[in-house]
Design brief:
Strand order of the largest sheet: 1-3-2
Shape: extended
Largest sheet: 3 strands, antiparallel
Radius of gyration: 21 Å
């Protein structure tokens, strides 16, 4: 029996569920990067970056090529960049909604206001 698609999707999103992996994919959405270039941008130890790149390689989200002693990574599928763009759009809308809610709460007086005093 084959694995249901929703389980495969869940595994896919688990793979994306790490900040270092997301940052690597964002960088690779711009262009190919050498591991040495990514180290400064990602801000983790080389061993940790290597582990996260291995996860992305196993998931077939990135590909690697060696040039001399340098290893270069690129996205295996350009649609990953589109997925990250869509995620940014969704998060922007969610955070905008939260900012509006926060502004509404502050406009209502917040803690210590007359409305809040009656509930204590």
């Amino acid at each position: 029996m084959s694995t249901p698609l929703y389980r495969l999707k869940a595994e896919f999103f688990k793979t994306l569920g790490h900040p270092v992996r997301i940052r690597v994919l964002e960088l690779l959405s711009e262009r190919e990067h050498a591991v040495s270039e990514m180290l400064g941008e990602v801000g983790v130890e080389a061993a940790h970056l290597s582990q996260q790149l291995a996860v992305l390689r196993r998931a077939r989200l990135v590909t690697a090529r060696r040039e001399g002693s340098a290893v270069y990574y690129t996205l295996a599928n350009p649609e990953v960049a589109e997925l990250l763009r869509v995620a940014r759009t969704i998060l922007t809308e969610v955070l905008t909604g939260q900012a509006e809610l926060l502004a509404d709460l502050r406009a209502d007086g917040g803690p210590g206001s007359e409305g809040a005093a009656g509930t204590r």
